[in-house]
Amino acid sequence: MSRNLTLAVAQVGGINADDSKPHVVARLIGLLEEAAGRGADLVVFPELTLTTFFPRTWFDDEGAIDRYFEKSMPNSDVQPLFDRAQQLGVGFYLGYAELTGGGKRYNTAILVDKQGSIVGKYRKMHLPGHADKRQGLPNQHLEKKYFLEGDLGFGVFDFHGTKIGMCLCNDRRWPEVYRALALQGAEVVLLGYNTPDFVPGWQEEPHAKMFAHLLSIQAGAYQNSVFVAAAGKSGFEDGNHMIGGSAVVAPSGEILTKAAGEDDEVLVVKIDLDMSKPYRESVFDFDAHRRPDAYGIIAERKGRGEPLPVNFSVNA
Amino acid sequence: MSRNLTLAVAQVGGINADDSKPHVVARLIGLLEEAAGRGADLVVFPELTLTTFFPRTWFDDEGAIDRYFEKSMPNSDVQPLFDRAQQLGVGFYLGYAELTGGGKRYNTAILVDKQGSIVGKYRKMHLPGHADKRQGLPNQHLEKKYFLEGDLGFGVFDFHGTKIGMCLCNDRRWPEVYRALALQGAEVVLLGYNTPDFVPGWQEEPHAKMFAHLLSIQAGAYQNSVFVAAAGKSGFEDGNHMIGGSAVVAPSGEILTKAAGEDDEVLVVKIDLDMSKPYRESVFDFDAHRRPDAYGIIAERKGRGEPLPVNFSVNA
After folding, report:
1. How close does chain B come to A310, measured CA to CA in Å?
2. What is the number of other CB atoms lying within 10 angstroms of the CB of residue A278?
3. How far apart are alpha carbons B314 and B316 in whole angstroms?
4. Which of A71, A215, A297 sits opposite B218 (nearest CB)?
5. Model pTM?
6. Which domains does chain B have, with CATH numbers?
7. Who among B156, B163, B175 is closest to A223 (CB)?
8. A51, A91, B59, B119: which could join A42 in a potential S-S bond, CB 3.0 to 4.6 Å?
9. Per-residue pLDDT tens digits for B112-150
């Protein structure tokens, strides 16, 4: 008997700084309803779904960013999304800017089950960019200024019998993320992202943005025998362009569905969770093949350092 | 000033069980001479370059495999390759089956400098396949029977000022390999492989063999800001088919050169080692962005297990 999950990815076109949260939430409800109508069990929304990607902007007055943060979840602005999802019996993943009661700021995602309960929470572990103001550039990348590094680790949560891991945007480029989740039994990894064309200090070719995004999620899926469902906030936002490319990837590493455009777009795919079994039981049978005895350096070193000594003799 | 290395990948078409080693070595010398004529500093040969991929065959008499193993390196069969490389001032990477004086068997690769000295050695850490005889199949995959797991770790070696890491075949599918090498400053990762169409127990689509090979080496290069040079033993060998796809990949993850066929074929590309700098100093600045505090599970767990507890509160 196959174990099916109907997975939806809701790509969201640009959200401008002057879009009101109730207006944004109404848009998300429209996408949720489309996904539910097409049979979705779970809808993936992007990173920082409720607002513009404000880390591109330097604010001299730090208080100016408060409007982008959620002080509780759900709150009155977001409650209609929770209510509609519960009515429709659909779960969702939602990325947003979190401000805690203690005044801490995180780039956060939650997993909400079909009954409307928040059953999982993730705070972005790999914050890209910088904390200083860079001069003479079209935009900034201030995640290291506006957010604290995540403090919840890489959690795996139960969603009606499916083991779900979460991550956010830049996390997808770090193979440790998928591996830490897979070692806890994750079957599906959910990812929200905002990927601008221009990132200060990173002189990558424009075409390579999409390539590197897809390469990262496809390798993560393949090397860990998991599905990856990635939803981007895409297209033009306050005059800045972000890539599309929202997608669902199979444990083979192959793309099952991918957004064709850069605006609001719902992708739905019925996955068979057991598709990962032949991989987990052969080439990626971790118990049979992994070598944790030789992986210590990954958790011990942060940056690049000198080679470790190797005691080899040519003929030994 | 750019730092250049002219890198050659020598794909080797099938080597049959009845091909003599002197004959094989003469073929390799031909490829080496072509590479040197095109300016190569370093030539990458495949895994188990000197023989057929004998782990596909079950031998009731274990002594029957001895002929495939090298008891010293170089030995009289291989000395002509060392001599010619030294004459031409070219280094090389060579994969072969190693039998130690103590009777231990490894799937091994060596790095030889331009003066003909063996300056690095690697023993395959991730042995795929099985040790038992599988019935009713066109072939076996007996690396776990014929070899011991590598005991030298992931070493990084100096090659005339370039930091070189080595791995073999199945290692390329494990992101820990590239990461362990990159954390020791590796700039180029060398890989030899034999990838048959049919692997017992792994029901992958035929087209996906090449896809998964390229996905793995491209992701390894991109996520670690290294070049990857991969040489396959390819095409038909004793009636068994193996994929081609020998290639050099840039730190962007993009393929710089790839074999078009499945027979003997030399690829040469002049790389600028500093091409990796913009990546290492921004998106993949490990010191700025990695989270080893959360990677412990990668070195602590071998197989998939239960989720770790996550202490989150919805509004905290």
Report:
1. 6
2. 17
3. 6
4. A215
5. 0.98
6. 4-284 (3.60.110.10)
7. B175
8. A91
9. 999 999 999 999 999 999 999 999 888 899 999 999 999
